Amino acid sequence: MTLSAEIKSLFDGKLILDDLGTNFNEQNTNAIKLFQKLFVEKLNFELIQGMGGSIAEEIPVEDWNKSADAQEAFFIARSDEINILYVVIEKLTRYRERFALSSLRRERWARKGEYISIFYAPNSPIWHMVCPYSTGEEDTSGRLILRRYVLGEGENHRTVSENLTIVDASQVEPLFERIQKAFKVRPVTEQFYEDYKETFSNIKKHLLDQGIQLAKAKKFAHLFLNRLMFIYFIQKKKWLDNDKNFMFTFLKKYKFSGDEDLFYSKWLSTLFFEAMSESRNEKKINKFDDSDINNILNNIPFLNGGLFEKYDVDKESFSLSDDLLFKIIEDFLEYYNFTITEESPFDLDIAIDPAMLGKIYESLIAEEERGKAGIFYTPRIEVDLMCRLGIYEYFLQDRNEILPQKDEDFIKDLLIQLIFTPLEDWDREKKSKFEFIRKAMNNVKIVDPACGSGAFLVGMLQVLIELYRKL
Questions:
Q1: How far is CA 321 from CA 95, 318, 328, 347, 456, in A?
Q2: Which of 41, 84, 175, 329 has the most CB atoms lying inside 10 A of its own CB?
Q3: Which residues are registered as beta bridge partners of 344?
Q4: What is this structure's pTM?
Q5: What is the pLDDT of residues 148-159, one digit of tens each?
Q6: What count of Cα atoms within 13 Å lies in the side-chain half-sphere of residue 126?
Q7: How far, in whole angstroms, is CA 310 from its chain's centroid?
Q8: Could you report the per-residue pLDDT of 400-447, keeping only the tens digit for each?
Q9: pLDDT per residue over 354-383, tens digit each?
């Protein structure tokens, strides 16, 4: 078995909350042991134990930033001054993780950029493996970027398992550089895009071979892949039969049913055009011999915003073979982990997020067509800066009506502090100085009439959420 397969087997078979114990102490202790096994036995790090042979060295959390809601922390392994830390916080949120890492960076446990932190919250079925990054090609602002793998029940561990193999401490190349490479987001999204293009081309060719016109073949290929990707995103919320792997389960049920070459015409078509596009009280699906499948489809919530309408191209006479569909699902979509969290420039899940739909939309348009249509891609770091500048100007323009009559330079200084200070460096004791800004924030309206894939709308939402947290 390859190292990648061993790591994946460890995550898939052992990182399951119920199997780790019956209470928090058992679950937490066994999870720490599992991650020590990963880094010590699989990746050749040095084991760190605590006083008297306890499982790991405890890290005091009493003086940490209170916003981290840290309960306990441990130093569990190391190699070449790269520390592996395990932190328990009250709730598994990116907001708390950033404050926890900000506290860690002030101490010897986590020198800048030289650590990996595993976050866990009581009763959570998932863990976050986070590596910080402060400078380099993914950002030039110097602000701490958090890159994250999500691990545990219902998660796809292929990418993280493959990438962690290069973190083997026994290899001769500098470990720090290899860790940074293992936690890069860009190679994952670039590979997904290349796989998407290949899959798109395969669907298009499949339809062209059946006499479908080129424009219609391209339209259907985009529409079909968007529908599948939408399902992969929303299943992470467990909205589809309470199953984070609904589509893969649905495919397994099809294979077990005995049907042949009916996965699209019967199974997926029913899912798309009946289960997803009709309200629960309107659905009367009973075409499957297995009553459980009928019940599952009848209980899927109404989620049709137009994506699952039956368009003219759906009414064309064509078929999609099982072989093609199995390849799309098993060899393409199931290879990647999907996240419903829209990343910010400074907080990245190493997974496919909904913004990928926009990237595909923008990238597949030929350069000459994009220019004519006025469609351009703006990098996230620039979106973030432009949104902050925009909200700054909004507050200044609104000053005479909403903000109190104060010295303009004084107000500008306060606004710069509020808008441009990184969240993890923000002193919440200052918030009383900014109460007069709350009313102005409550009246903010954001309009982007040529929003494309919505990058600026999402960017402004993230900035406003950050400001509310500061206040």
A1: 45, 10, 11, 40, 40
A2: 84
A3: 347
A4: 0.77
A5: 999 999 899 999
A6: 18
A7: 30
A8: 455 555 566 677 777 877 887 777 777 766 666 777 677 777 778 888
A9: 777 777 766 665 443 554 545 455 666 677
The answer to whether 299 and 310 have CB atoms below 8 angstroms apart is: no
- Three-class DSSP labels, the chain: CCHHHHHHHHHHHHCCHHHHCCCHHHHHHHHHHHHHHHHHHHCCCEECCCHHHCCCEEECCCCCCHHHCEEEEEEEEEECCEEEEEEEECCCCHHHHHHHHHHHCCCCCCCCCCEEEEEECCCCCEEEEEEEECCECCECCCCCEEEEEEEECCCCCHHHHHHHHHHCCCCCCCHHHHHHHHCCCHHHHHHHHHHHHHHHHHHHHHHHCCCCCHHHHHHHHHHHHHHHHHHHHHHHHCCCCCCCCHHHHHHHHHHHHCCCCCHHHHHHHHHHHHHCCCCCCCCCCCCCCCHHHHHHHHCCCCCCCCCCCCCHHHHCCCCCCHHHHHHHHHHHHHHCCECCCCCECCEEECCECCHHHHHHHHHCCCHHHHHHHCCCCCCHHHHHHHHHHHHHHHHHHCCCCCCCCCCHHHHHHHHHHHHHCCHHHCCHHHHHHHHHHHHHHHCCCCCCCCCCCCHHHHHHHHHHHHHHHHC
Of 357, 360, 389, 361, the closest CA to residue 463 belongs to 389
Tokens, residue 76: 């569990």
Structure tokens at 234: 């929303």
Computed from CA positions of residues 331, 334, 337, 340, in that sequence, does the dihedral angle turn out positive or negative? positive
Q: Which residue, 150, 147, 160, is CA-closest to 343?
A: 147
Residue 261 CB partners (closer than 8 Å, separation 6+): 319, 321, 322
Q: Is 140 exposed, middle or buried (0-12, 13-18, 19+ CB in 10 A)?
A: exposed
